[in-house]
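Subject: sequence -> C-alpha cells, single chain

Hey, anyone have a minute? Need the predicted structure for the following. Not urgent.
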Amino acid sequence: MKAWDGKRYHALNSFLREKFGEKVFKISLDAGFTCPNRDGTVSSGGCIFCSARGSGDFTGTAQDLVEQFYEVKQMMNKKWKEGKYIAYFQAYTNTYASVEELREKYYSILKLEGVAGLAIATRPDCLGQEVMELLEELNQKTYLWVELGLQTIHEKTAQLINRGYELDTYINAAKQLKKRNIEAVTHVILGLPGENRKDMLETIDFVANTKTQGIKLHLLHVLKDTALYEMYMDGKLHTMSKDEYTDLIVDCVERLPEEMVIHRITGDGPRETLIAPMWSLKKWEVINAIEYQFMDRNTWQGKMFKSNRALEHIFE
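Reply:
Had a minute. Here:
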C-alpha cells in the first residue's frame, strides 16, 4: 500500500509540500469577472447549484485585487505563520475577459512576494486561442494549474444543472491544456439530482483516464437563493448522509490513479447560506470519517484503478 504523509490518498497539501519543500496555501480571490452562464451569452441563470458569489464565497472582500490578496493572506497567517502562496482566481469564470484585462490581473498578483504560482478556475468553453497563449506564457514563468468545471459526464444531468456546454467541449479544453503542458484540475460534484452511484462512478472512471493532474471532489450543497434550493424545497432532491458520502468517496478515490492529486475531498458551504446537508459544516469530522473508512476497508487511492486505453487515447 502506498501512503502520502500518512494518508491513503494523494492530497494537495502533501503534493505541494513535496514540490516546494515547505507549507504552501491558497489565497482565494474574486477578480471581478462574471460568467457566460450568467450574463446571457450562454444563459442568464447560471448553474443551478452556484451561489450568488459564483462559488467565491470564501474570497476576500476588498475591491482592489492586491488589497484583497493581502486581506486573505492575513487571515491565513493566523493558521500558518510562514509559507508560500498559490493565488487562486476562484470566483466566477476567470478567463472570461479580454486578454489585456486577464494579463493585467494575473501579473498584478504574480509579482507579489511569496506567490509561488497561480490557480485559475474557469469553464472549458472560455479557453479561446488567445487565452490559451496567455496561459502558456504564464506556465513558462510560474507554477500554474487551470481548473475545469466538468461536474458530470452525463449530458442529461448537464442539461438539468444548466452547465451550458457539452462533454466534447471539456475534452477539447483538456487536450489543449495538455498539449501546452499546462496542468488541469477537474471538478466533479457528487450527489447531483437524478444521478445514482453508477452514474457518479462512471464520471470518476472517465476523469481517472483523462490525464488531468488533479481532481476536486465536491459534495453537492444546497444554498439559499439558487435554483437547486427551489428543487430541494419542492422535495425533488435527495442529499446524501455523511455515511453515504464517506462510503462513496472511498469508492471514488480508490478508482483514481496514484499520481492524480486530490485537490479537494469534501467541502463546506458558507454557514449563512447553507441549507443542506448541514453535517458538511463539520469539515474535519467528515475528513476523519473518510480516513477511517479507508483504514476500515483496507484500501487506498489507485487500488481499483483500471486503465481505459480507448479513453486515454482521446487525451493523447
